[in-house]
Amino acid sequence: MGDLLKDRRGAKVTDQVLHLTRRGILSALGVCCIAWSSRILAQGVMMDFTLPATMRGCWIVNDGVKGGVSQSSLRHDPQGMIFEGQVSLENNGGFASMRSPARLERETQVLDLTTIGDGKRYKLILRTEATVRVTYESDFVSEATWHTHRFTTSQFIASFRGRSVQASPLSFSDVIELGILIADKQEGSFRLQLKTIKSL
Asked: How confident is the model at residue 130 (pLDDT cuts 50, 70, 90)?
């Protein structure tokens, strides 16, 4: 049986999806990603999206997993990786996202994400070893000039399939995956450019 969760109203939520694709990707990329991340963590940069190798470790998850038709892609640029596409509300869809394996230093207290974008609202999403079927999400609004968004653990809300749930408190040291999500019925084209994520 899948994991049992409770939403904030006390209702049970059962997840019977095994997420084999994501777990397979993490297994295949895990060793090389962790070694690469350890090298750049010494410089205070957890992920440098100006490097082509960073994009090669990322993948797309759109609402097609639920029957939707939203589309998105990743594109390398010397100034930073571009995450772009089209969000559609057809077929009960409405989200697009990119994901990447990630490991943070145990002492991490703050994450700094530097982006430039289209003024739309995005979410930084994290997944941990302790609660692999729950995502921790924190909103940010992209700006038309390069801007660094700062996140602490208290800013993240535990979510399961778009609903807030009760879950273990987020610890950055438990993170195994991160991503960027656009949802909230923001239909139409979007474009967000990512430069770096730093752990402090």
From this structure: confident
Taking the CA of residue 184 as centre, how many other CA atoms within 13 Å lie in the half-sphere pointing to its CB?
A: 12
Q: How many helices (H) and strands (E) does the chain have?
A: 2, 15
What are the structural domains, with CATH classification, of the chain?
3-199 (2.60.120.430)
Instruction: Look at the alpha carbons of 61, 91, 192, 197 in this order and tell me if their dihedral is positive or negative.
Output: negative
Helix (H, G, I), strand (E, B) or coil at 47: strand
Measured CA to CA in angstroms, residue 160 lies from 7, 11, 12, 74 at distances of 8, 12, 11, 25
pTM metric for this prediction:
0.80
- For residue 89, CA distances in Å to 55, 117, 120, 164 come to 27, 21, 16, 21
Distances (CA, A) of 65 to 34, 71, 92, 199: 27, 12, 11, 31
Name which of 187, 188, 139 is nearest 159 in CA terms: 139
- Look over the chain and give the mean of its residue pLDDT values, rounded to a whole number: 84
DSSP for residue 146: -
